[in-house]
């Protein structure tokens, strides 16, 4: 039987007979005659070359091969029914699957939300419940189905898969830098009106430590302090000064001339974006599809 596959109707008949152990009842369940069901089962046995049922005194029992085949056929038919219902545009009562996704506010606003419309078009059966309480996820005080977080990959309660590295740039507006030139070294950025990131994983600290400054020297750099990149970006656009921001957040504004690079050097941190999920749930439909969609866009960031 190499290369041959049984028909769907023969598998459906076999599955129904396995359930009822009666050709007549199986036929009624499928709206077929008893003889039609019997013919389909015999065709299946002929294709396989093995007996699937013992037939004695009008009683049916599965052979050992029949029991093994019945289990697999039932799984295949159940899976086929599920996927057919999922993609059917005529199914009005198709249930949606909710996926709780957590990321940090800037990434959500600047990158993820503008692209979610595309995801909804391709996966209308998945509803994204987007949250930005990423610190609660980091502390494991709140669980989620999926997260996109920046860090070193160490989240004990989740499987962390690297998504992408990013480059950090010192940026400002052309108006702020008017009459001056971009500096050459990372250390010289401290001579500008500086806008600090004040979160636990501060790009301010990482930038100036990389430049060779001490923690005491960094603490003496004046300027404004904000938690999230989205706030730093707005401060930069309002001509307050220079800040260190991820390239994915500012590259369009640089191309359009709204922002300029204020330092010839840049920072490639050891940390990166990761996607997080429960390893035991990696084959869940919503997690699998959202992961695949994200990875297809990792070079767009």
From TrEMBL:
<comment type="similarity">
    <text>Belongs to the LysR transcriptional regulatory family.</text>
</comment>
<dbReference type="InterPro" id="IPR058163">
    <property type="entry name" value="LysR-type_TF_proteobact-type"/>
</dbReference>
<dbReference type="Pfam" id="PF00126">
    <property type="entry name" value="HTH_1"/>
</dbReference>
<dbReference type="InterPro" id="IPR036390">
    <property type="entry name" value="WH_DNA-bd_sf"/>
</dbReference>
<keyword id="KW-0804">Transcription</keyword>
<dbReference type="InterPro" id="IPR000847">
    <property type="entry name" value="LysR_HTH_N"/>
</dbReference>
<dbReference type="GO" id="GO:0006351">
    <property type="term" value="P:DNA-templated transcription"/>
</dbReference>
<dbReference type="InterPro" id="IPR005119">
    <property type="entry name" value="LysR_subst-bd"/>
</dbReference>
<keyword id="KW-0805">Transcription regulation</keyword>
<dbReference type="GO" id="GO:0003700">
    <property type="term" value="F:DNA-binding transcription factor activity"/>
</dbReference>
<dbReference type="InterPro" id="IPR036388">
    <property type="entry name" value="WH-like_DNA-bd_sf"/>
</dbReference>
<protein>
    <recommendedName>
        <fullName>HTH lysR-type domain-containing protein</fullName>
    </recommendedName>
</protein>
<feature type="domain" description="HTH lysR-type">
    <location>
        <begin position="6"/>
        <end position="63"/>
    </location>
</feature>
<keyword id="KW-0238">DNA-binding</keyword>
<dbReference type="GO" id="GO:0043565">
    <property type="term" value="F:sequence-specific DNA binding"/>
</dbReference>
<dbReference type="Pfam" id="PF03466">
    <property type="entry name" value="LysR_substrate"/>
</dbReference>
């Amino acid at each position: 039987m190499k290369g041959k596959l049984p028909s769907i109707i023969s598998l459906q008949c076999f599955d129904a007979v396995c359930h009822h152990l009666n050709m007549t009842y199986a036929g009624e369940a499928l709206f077929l005659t008893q003889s039609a069901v019997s013919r389909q089962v015999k065709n299946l046995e002929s294709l396989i070359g093995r007996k699937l049922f013992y037939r004695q005194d009008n009683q049916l029992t599965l052979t050992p091969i029949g029991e093994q085949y019945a289990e697999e056929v039932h799984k295949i038919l159940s899976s086929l029914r599920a996927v057919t219902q999922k993609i059917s545009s005529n199914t009005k009562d198709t249930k949606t699957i909710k996926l709780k996704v957590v990321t940090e506010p800037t990434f959500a606003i600047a990158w993820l939300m503008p692209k979610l419309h595309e995801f909804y078009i391709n996966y209308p059966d998945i509803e994204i419940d987007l949250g930005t309480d990423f610190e609660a996820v980091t502390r494991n005080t709140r669980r989620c189905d999926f997260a996109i977080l920046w860090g070193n990959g160490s989240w004990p309660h989740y499987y962390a898969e690297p998504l992408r590295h990013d480059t950090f740039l010192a940026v400002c507006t052309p108006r702020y830098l008017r009459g001056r030139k971009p500096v050459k070294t990372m250390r010289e950025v401290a001579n500008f009106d500086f806008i600090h990131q004040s979160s636990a994983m501060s790009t301010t600290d990482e930038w100036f430590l990389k430049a060779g400054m001490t923690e005491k020297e960094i603490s003496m750099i004046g300027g404004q302090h904000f938690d999230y990149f989205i706030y730093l970006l707005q401060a930069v656009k309002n001509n307050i000064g220079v800040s260190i921001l991820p390239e994915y957040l500012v590259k369009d504004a640089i191309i359009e001339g709204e922002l300029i690079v204020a330092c010839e050097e840049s920072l490639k941190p050891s940390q990166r974006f990761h996607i997080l999920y429960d390893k035991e749930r990696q084959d869940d439909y919503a997690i699998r599809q959202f992961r695949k969609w994200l990875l297809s866009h990792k070079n767009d960031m």
